[in-house]
Write a structure and sequence with these properties.
Length: 372
């Protein structure tokens, strides 16, 4: 069993999955991380292939798990895994033999909890989905025969195989907590039949990814109050109503009847940039289409005044300089909240996001509470 105090000895770098078209932004994040950690390396980031490979130019022996570029720390990464072996030229008739030979390059004590296969969410990668599902079982059986998988009930590190095409697989393994729950980094969410729009999936994913289990229990309680700016047709308002949270939906557009039928959503026809609550609320939601700097200033104003305790909002990104736009928006929030005790920020490019990122912001202790 590998040590729980995981070190990236013998790792050659990291492979990360992302939405196609965002490879360059993810590569920028890798270079930023490597510069901060003094970890020299180069990125392979081909446009629209859905993955980025960071190859370290120096040994990674001293890199601790808490300092690694996990999928939660990198905004544009759906999954991040340390890769150890790249297996190329896999024959179509027998991919199993060369993969097993590559696994034998791991030390004898390297025994894994299980195997998961992943693939990029790209035009070239999606056809690999069915193959990965079928191939996982024979690969698991072969690894068990070679005593490379731990007995049940004996948890350890997972072994991952990331297929980037039909003839190439990257073998990776990661300590618990470093990798995303889904091997390909895509959460399995079902669209509720009664939901007014697919935007509910975006919010459901945001609450799943940006909050912990304990935080969801603590921060999403019946009887709480929320405001949804730019609410129409009401997907986000409807989702919060399912938690028993009363929502004031602000929009000059029409809120869907099935949303108001919950009895928990109260529409107000108003401009989301001008409207203010009479009393502070627990949550502020915002999915308005506007410049990210302007949305950031609006969110900062609500938090700084104490009009809300938590904010969940989207930043619509430009086609170029996406990371710079995020940096600017977050800097605006931090500047405004600096004198109020500060702000905690979590940012993620979710699977259900497109040209945007989703941000969770929480005023830290010392921020003015506002009116009750």
């Amino acid at each position: 069993m590998l040590s729980k105090e995981h070190k990236f000895k013998d790792s050659n770098g990291f492979i990360a999955l992302c939405r196609p078209g965002f490879e360059k932004a993810l590569a920028q994040e890798f270079y930023r991380w490597s510069g901060q950690k003094g970890m020299a390396g180069v990125c392979r980031a081909d446009d629209r292939n859905g993955f980025v490979v960071f190859s370290a130019s120096m040994p990674m022996d001293d890199l601790a798990a808490e300092a690694a570029p996990s999928w939660q720390r990198l905004i544009f990464a759906r999954q991040v895994l340390p890769w150890f072996v790249q297996v190329t030229d896999l024959p179509a008739g027998d991919r199993l033999t060369p993969i097993l030979a590559a696994v034998e390059q791991f030390p004898p004590e390297a025994v894994f909890e299980g195997i998961e296969l992943a693939f990029p969410d790209s035009e070239a990668g999606r056809p690999l989905s069915r193959f990965c599902r079928r191939f996982e079982k024979p690969l698991t059986c072969a690894l068990q025969e070679r005593e490379r998988l731990a007995p049940k009930g004996n948890p350890g590190e997972m072994l991952y195989g990331v297929f980037t095409d039909w003839s190439t697989v990257w073998l990776c393994h990661a300590p618990p907590g470093l990798a995303a729950p889904s091997a390909s980094g895509i959460p399995r969410l079902r669209m509720p039949r009664e939901a007014p729009s697919r935007s509910v999936l975006k919010l459901a994913e945001a609450l799943l990814v940006l909050l912990t289990d304990k935080e969801r229990q603590r921060f999403l309680k019946p009887g709480m109050k929320a405001v949804d700016l730019g609410a129409a047709p009401g997907g986000w308002s409807w989702q919060f109503a399912q938690y028993g949270i009363e929502v004031t939906a602000i929009d000059n557009g029409r809120i869907a009847p099935r949303v108001t039928a919950t009895g928990m959503v109260h529409p107000i026809a108003a401009d989301g940039f001008k409207w203010r609550p009479r009393r502070s609320v627990d949550w502020l939601l915002c999915d308005m289409v506007e410049q990210p700097s302007r949305i950031a200033e609006l969110m900062a104003a609500w938090l700084a005044r104490g009009d809300c305790r938590h904010a969940l909002f989207n930043l619509k990104l430009p086609m170029k300089k996406r990371l710079a736009a995020i940096d600017d928006a977050l800097a605006r929030l931090r500047r405004r909240m600096g004198s109020q005790g500060g702000v905690e920020l979590r940012v993620k490019h979710l699977y259900h996001d497109r040209e945007e990122v989703t941000v969770y912001a929480r005023a830290l202790r010392g921020a003015r509470r506002g009116r009750r």
